[in-house]
Amino acid sequence: MLTLFGRERLGSWEVVGCEPLVRREIRGVLPTGWPFEASDRFTNTVDGTRVDVDIRWQMPWGVVGRALAILARPLLAWQMRGNGRRAEAVLGGPVSD
After folding, report:
1. pLDDT band at 35 (very low <50, low <70, confident <90, very high)
2. How far apart are CA 16 and CA 74, in angstroms?
3. For residues 37 and 54, is the Cβ–Cβ distance under 8 A?
4. How many domains are contained in the chain?
5. Can you tell me the distance from the alpha carbon of 8 to that of 13, in angstroms, rounded to the nearest whole number?
6. Quick check: 18 and 24 in contact, CB under 8 A?
7. Which domain holds residue 30?
8. Is the pTM of this model over 0.70?
9. Is 48 domain-assigned?
């Protein structure tokens, strides 16, 4: 979720590919309105499960879009940390960033 000009914006996504307990492929739209594709890879560790996330999106507007991408990366990292904290609360175990 992203709050922009006092309004909450939600993205949408769907799983387009999956290998249970190994990986999933996702496609959707970020809260900013930009389309994206992502993949999550799950690896068993001594402490639980490691999740590696790869997100790809194309910024519109050429040079302006590339400049916005620099600002979008920290926002996305902040969102992912929040997702990790919420997962930790639900799952009842430690989740690292």
Report:
1. confident
2. 26
3. no
4. 1
5. 17
6. yes
7. 2-91
8. no
9. yes
